[in-house]
Amino acid sequence: MIARAFSLLLLIYAIGFMAFAFTLGKPAKADARTTDAVVVLTGGSGRLEHAVDVLRDGKAERLLVAGADPSVTKADIARRLGSRARNVRSAIDLGSESVDTRSNAEEAARWLQKNRYDSLRLITSDWHMRRARYEFRRVLGQDFDMITDAVRSEPSFLTLFGEYNKFVLRRVAVWADI
């Protein structure tokens, strides 16, 4: 009986992982509405560049780089982005209070409230979007209109497996009120 129950849980886990792997976050549609702000989560290639492009294209008025290393400056960002950052550098804020996805959401919430914004575009990698969206919805509730805008990547099996486990464990922790 225990072996059957364990086998059923393992099967549910495996099916969940397959669904997770085949339904990664998607980029926002080209005609997605303009938002007050863009929040980009650091840690993956192409995220910051895409966020600055969104800002430069006028799809938001301000950008928060959540989870930036405290030693990083706007000048560092400008050097990294080169001509991409021209004309938008003054609209970029660096947030260095957060260390993980949950604290990214908390940091972004304080920044959004301080600036009296009502809407945001959340940018992160496609494999990270599901957990990021979950954490942001938990912190922001329905008080903010949110568009998700995933940066496409080619995640490895280990990246997907690790992210799926983090997502499942976080959901269990919230459910268990841990």
TrEMBL record:
Q: Kindly state a single biological-process term from the GO annotations of this entry.
A: peptidoglycan metabolic process
Domain named DUF218: which ranges?
36-143
Cellular component, GO, one term: plasma membrane
What is the superkingdom listed in this entry's lineage? Bacteria
PANTHER family, sorted: ENVELOPE BIOGENESIS FACTOR ELYC, INNER MEMBRANE PROTEIN, PROBABLE PERMEASE
Under which name does UniProt file this protein? YdcF family protein
Q: Which organism is it from?
A: Sphingomonas lutea
